[in-house]
Amino acid sequence: VDQLIRNMDTSKKRFERASMSVMTAFAYNLTFLILLATAGSPVPNSQHTVLILVGGTGDLATKYLWQSVFDVYLSSLDFGQIEESNWRQTPLVNHTFDFYAAGRSHQNKGNVILNNILKTGITCDYNEGDNSKINAHACEKILTNFVNKVAYVMLQNEEDFAVLCSVITHKFSGFPSTTVKELIMFMAIPPNAYEIVLHRFNEQCPTLRQRNVSIKLALEKPFGLDKASAETMSKKVLSYFEEEEIYRVDHYLGKPVVKAILPFRNLNPDIEQIMNTDYVERVEIFLKETVGVEERFDVYNTMGVLRDIHQNHLTQLLILVAMDLPSDLSNNIDVQQNKERLLKQIEPVSRHNSLFGQYENYAANAERHEVNGTDTTPTFAASVVKINSPRWRSVPFLLVSGKQLDIRESYIRVVFKNNYVCVSHCEDKKLEDKSRHAKQIIFHIGHGNLKWPSILVSKSFKAPKCPNSFQESSDFKLATTSVVYGEVLKNFFVCAVLKDMPAYVSVLSDILIGRQEYFVSTSQLILSWQVWDYLINTSKKIRLYENSDPHDRLDFIVKMSQLEYVHNDNDAEEMAEELAVPTHNGGMHTFKQTSASFLGQKLITSNSDHLAFILARDIGRAAVVDIQSKGSFHIAFSGGTSLHKVFQILAQSFANLHWHSIHVWQVDERCVPHHDERSNFQVLDRELLRFVDIPYSNIHAMPVYTGGRLCDPELGGAHVYADSLRHIVPNSQLDFIVWV
């Protein structure tokens, strides 16, 4: 009632200024009172939000967050109530804020740092065309008012947290019970500091929820370094906060084009119905950067490109373009369930499906930072992701990212198959439109040769419907080059974004609204790590490349589900026969590899990687010759770790052999089940057989486990295997034996 009286008084004054009578104002509020009474329940007419930016003087907060916080604050105001002569601001729904920057610096030092950030790092990016209700002078006054609302708080020990919680509780207690109260904690700090901050907050602020204060926790990546650490971190966070209170931020989900992917698919059913294996040739998801690691070196060296980009940004983009559409895009539960369903269908990525690189001056950076172990940190990676579902089976999703590349850009490119065949009256049809030009849809997320984030659709499709905040554009000046994605721009329908909202503005707005579908749930997090965990923790062969890759050393081709560099460093014919080594006096020693023989046969000597490649190459050549001459090729492998590399090269570089004509045998085996890590067959299967198209009947494993008994001499497993060799192998003679 008190609030209604205040509303009536406020409305009365506004009507008087407009020369309306007091009775009219009273009648207006009386009508409002009657409508409210008949609604059945009171409607909250105010909201107060306290935002605590933990790490509020750090790099992320300085570069992105405070500007975004101000932009969100600015957009929450009713600009219709801002007047030049008598400046004031009235929130659109009486939404008030308090802002705190929390850090470890002492109070006085923290105040100085924060004031410098707010005064030099935030601008009133006023554009008269964006909102005619506000002018530059009023915007600057709002900025001054915002800066005065931000306070620094030191958080070093339990007492500091107790003081902060007391201040917050006092702030909320000054609002009536009808006010919606919420606290947002944005953790802009390294994840290894999450636990101590959350523990102390939970310990010192136990009564906030009891006071009807809703709490939202925003977490920044990385969310763990592998699946095990992600699970541990998630359990700790969930011990303090409920799942619905947690907002794991992937800022790419806040970019305009990324947020438009699902609405675009939903608006264009004709396109959606051909987004499947029958029509799609491949999907490319790229995130390229021209910069190196620079000041992030210490952090990046423990992560590499897979943890930094593939496991989060690129995987989230893949989900949005490949997931099944829910019946209602606004239903967060349905959206999240469909995302999780797709993640469960993705096969774990192996090194046979991936290529890696590192820019050349990365090692020099390591010396300046006195960091060791940099030779295993990739700054470039390309991976084929396979989705085991009827919709996407056999469609390769190429996820590519790297630093110090030729151009900065990010996009999703869906390339469709050229499956149009003309039978009748072909001369009357524009065949070049149907067969020469690639049918593709591009979600151009940012940068590159387009000035604005846009959605491009080949004109071989009918004109698409553009999502909200996008409009159809025919401005050919949108591109900085004549050709984009292999086509001139006029061959595309273009949906261009109306306003390129910064990602963190969108992220903060979604947190305020509670749109959790734009954030990563705990189950999604663990499932995404399941996709990448093996690849991240396995050894990798890393190719060096120069800044901007001027010699195209990173170009690759796709063979089946395998990737292969176009320029192969392992090609024996291209490897130098001489190795020059500097002497102490500045001269050069020259060493030559001399030919040798062993037991009358040619002896090949080199480093282990080179030997593995030569052996795999010779196996491939022998297989081709024998299959052409007699229709089959029988090879036997022994056990031993020395063959792991050979298996990997065969799976990666020789997957296109005619494996249907190849039979694989074993030279020896241990008396352990085939699923045991010590089993020779287990290694052979894990590193080679599961990655090539070989029939099950062509795989001849030694029968070590028969009739429920292991290596029982009475069952005669060795004799059974010998009989198989005699009956299946022509002339009982294997074509190739690899024995180490």
From TrEMBL:
Residues 607-737 form the Glucosamine/galactosamine-6-phosphate isomerase domain. Keywords: Carbohydrate metabolism, Glucose metabolism, Membrane, NADP, Transmembrane, Transmembrane helix. Pathway: Carbohydrate degradation; pentose phosphate pathway. It holds the Pfam family G6PD_C. It comes from the Eukaryota. One of its GO terms (biological process) is glucose metabolic process. Residues 264-547 form the Glucose-6-phosphate dehydrogenase C-terminal domain. SUPFAM superfamilies: Glyceraldehyde-3-phosphate dehydrogenase-like, C-terminal domain, NAD(P)-binding Rossmann-fold domains, NagB/RpiA/CoA transferase-like. Residues 52-259 form the Glucose-6-phosphate dehydrogenase NAD-binding domain. The chain crosses the membrane at residues 21-40. GO terms for molecular function: glucose-6-phosphate dehydrogenase activity; NADP binding. One of its GO terms (cellular component) is endoplasmic reticulum. This is Glucose-6-phosphate 1-dehydrogenase. It comes from Arion vulgaris.
